[in-house]
């Protein structure tokens, strides 16, 4: 495989879940899963953890990742993931033709084999675009409606008479990983348009923005690993 660098953004501040990236998830800090999956995949020649937080950087280093201190202006609520990636590219002078994977710190349901397979797909079909994790909506958005003055208004009335199996499948970002060449990260702001999706099952996907999300993710993790152990 071609050289690929993994960048794990992991800022210290988090308002809804305090110290989220170091919070214990099924026995160890949640960021450990991303670092260990990156290491076990065998596809990365460097694994960088970008953070403003010394404790996170020290912990990442203890697991075998390379710590990169990011500036304060890239550590607030408005800083985009792409801006953090661009800072890493500039700081490390990563060549434009290199591959770079942004791997989120809160992706404990992911496994190293999935990362490896996604990189293979990116190399084969995403030379000039992004390849990122996606998942099908668990309930079709074509059935969505708004509520105004206690009255419902369907957003897609033309689909009212269709059976659920007749509705087109719709997907969304699974929020786990994004592969692309460095030049694509630099040139293309829109990650989703004209890109390649690597589809994940619902069992491997869970947004973790609230404590309720966190609890659901732990339940999914335990279920996944109980299947692997049987």
Brief overview:
It is built from six helices and eleven strands.
What does this structure look like?
The protein is an alpha/beta fold and 230 residues long. The protein has a single domain (4-229), classed as Spore Coat Polysaccharide Biosynthesis Protein SpsA, Chain A. 31% of the residues lie in helices and 23% in strands. It is built from 6 helices and 11 strands. It has helices at 30-41, 54-62, 81-92, 112-125, 182-187, 211-229, and strands at 4-9, 24-25, 28-29, 46-51, 66-69, 99-103, 131-136, 145-148, 151-154, 171-181, 196-199. The strands form 3 sheets. A 7-stranded mixed sheet has the order 5-4-1-6-10-7-11, sandwiched between helices. Strands 2-3 form a two-stranded antiparallel sheet. Strands 8-9 form a two-stranded antiparallel ribbon. Strand 4 (46-51), helix 2 and strand 5 (66-69) form a beta-alpha-beta unit. Helix 1 (30-41) packs across helix 4 (112-125). The longest helix is centred in the last third of the chain and has 19 residues, at 211-229. 34% of the residues are buried.
Q: Between the first and last Cα atoms, what is the distance in angstroms? A: 32 Å
Question: Helical stretch count?
Answer: 6
Question: Based on the structure, what is the oligomeric state of the protein chains?
Answer: single chain
Q: What is the correct CATH architecture?
A: Alpha-Beta Complex
**What is the CATH class?**
Alpha Beta
Question: What proportion of the residues is helical, as a percent range?
Answer: 25-40%
Whole-number count of domains: 1
Number of strands: 11
Structural class: alpha/beta
Lateral arrangement of strands in the main beta sheet: 5-4-1-6-10-7-11
Strand content: 15-25%
Fold-level CATH name: Spore Coat Polysaccharide Biosynthesis Protein SpsA, Chain A
User: Average pLDDT value?
Assistant: 94
Largest sheet, if any? 7 strands, mixed
CATH H-level superfamily title: Spore Coat Polysaccharide Biosynthesis Protein SpsA, Chain A
Q: Radius of gyration, rounded?
A: 19 Å
Shape: globular
Helix/strand order, N-terminal first? EEEHEHEHEHEEEEHEH
Low-confidence stretches: none
